[in-house]
Design a protein that fits this description.
With 324 residues, the chain is mainly α. The protein has 2 domains: 6-250, no CATH class; 262-323. The protein has 14 helices and 5 strands. It has helices at 6-27, 48-62, 77-83, 114-117, 120-139, 150-160, 164-170, 191-205, 210-215, 218-233, 235-243, 247-250, 262-283, 292-323, and strands at residues 69-74, 101-104, 107-113, 173-176, 181-184. A 3-stranded mixed β-sheet has the order 1-3-2. Strand 2 (101-104) and strand 3 form a beta hairpin. The longest helix is centred in the last third of the chain and has 32 residues, at 292-323. Mean pLDDT is 83; it is low at 78-89 and 287-298.
């Protein structure tokens, strides 16, 4: 898995900075909500009461418990049969026949389909994005509209509310039913984008990544690890987002690539050795500059430097593991 292009990351960080300037104080200090019993201790039932408990729990994590939000279960049996299967393995359809949210007399109604109640990952993703939309409507100053595309802004708000890990799971839902393997994406940002932005959020709030890596699926875990390495190389961005996000809107900023990992270093060294062997074979015995003695003398300092680099990487990796 590779990082998104720098131009794309720059756009995401600029969007994030605008949100911090406009709503930073409204976000507060949120935890990184994980799909486990620590954050979801309630017994879940596939009913309106079960959905209400889930929504209330997620509102609490997001600091939105003062906003009235009432879930309503729609009997969308025809749509459910067309887009899901009886096993519950398929991801729920991202859209209903009715609007996801309605506002009436200062009370928000969150519409959920029957099929969505049967899919834990899909349900928490949909609720997280719905809460993000409500948060924007409730906190943006009068007359100010969210940046377009709205779905991307919605996902970034979700990350700021602490829902990055839940959105990561919903960005890549793998299922092996309904006619073969398929991947569903219930978010606007893809898995790589969410991995980077979730890691940046954790770094801004001084939150550990390791607990999230233990509970995420394989693809999402890889994306978050990649995001963690990138965030470590760009600590200036998390510091600026926390202290003075407007600076990221008025001044140019640079992105640094992640530091090479031990595995990448070993792979590079192996390829370097292979290229050297190929060069020696092509040169033949008549080329004095490529005799074993000459090659040995020429590469002594290089080998020494590589050994020093390898030793430093090992020590750095061990220190990182101990700190986690």
């Amino acid at each position: 898995m590779e990082l998104p292009a720098d131009a794309h990351l720059t756009d995401l960080i600029t969007r994030q900075a605008r949100l911090h300037v406009a709503l930073g104080s409204e976000f507060g200090k949120r935890p990184l909500v994980l799909p486990n019993g620590q954050f979801f201790p309630d017994r879940f039932e596939q009913s309106r009461a079960g959905a209400a408990r889930l929504v209330a729990r997620m509102q609490l994590h997001a600091g939105m418990q003062d906003i009235p939000i009432v879930p309503q279960i729609l009997d969308e049996s025809a749509a459910a049969n067309a887009t899901s299967c009886s096993s519950g393995a398929c991801a729920p359809a991202p859209n209903l026949q009715q609007p996801r949210l309605n506002l009436d007399d200062d009370v928000w109604t969150l519409n959920l389909g029957l099929a969505e109640l049967a899919h834990p990952v899909g349900l928490t993703t949909l609720v997280a994005r719905a809460l993000s939309a409500v948060f924007l409507e409730e906190t943006l100053p009068d007359g100010q509209r969210p940046a377009e595309p709205f779905g991307i802004t919605q996902d970034l708000v979700g990350v700021n509310l602490g829902f990055g890990a839940l959105l990561l799971e919903g960005s890549h839902i793998y299922s092996k039913s309904c006619g073969g393997p398929q991947i569903a994406q219930l978010t606007s940002l893809n898995t790589r984008d969410l991995g980077v932005m979730t890691a940046l959020f954790a770094q801004c709030h001084g939150l550990p990544i390791k607990p999230a890596l233990k509970v995420l699926s394989a693809t999402q875990r890889s994306a978050l690890k990649l995001g963690r390495d990138w965030a470590k190389a760009n600590t200036h961005l998390s510091k600026t987002l926390t202290v003075d996000p407007e600076l990221l809107l008025t001044s140019a900023f640079e992105l640094e690539p992640p530091a090479p990992s031990l595995l990448a270093f070993l792979d590079r060294r192996s390829k370097d050795d292979q290229r050297l062997e190929e060069a020696l074979l092509l040169a033949g015995p008549g080329d004095a500059s490529h005799t074993p003695a000459a090659s040995s003398r020429r590469n002594t300092s290089t080998t020494s430097r590589d050994d020093d680099d390898l030793r430093a990487l090992v020590e750095s990796s061990l220190a990182e593991l101990r700190s986690e």
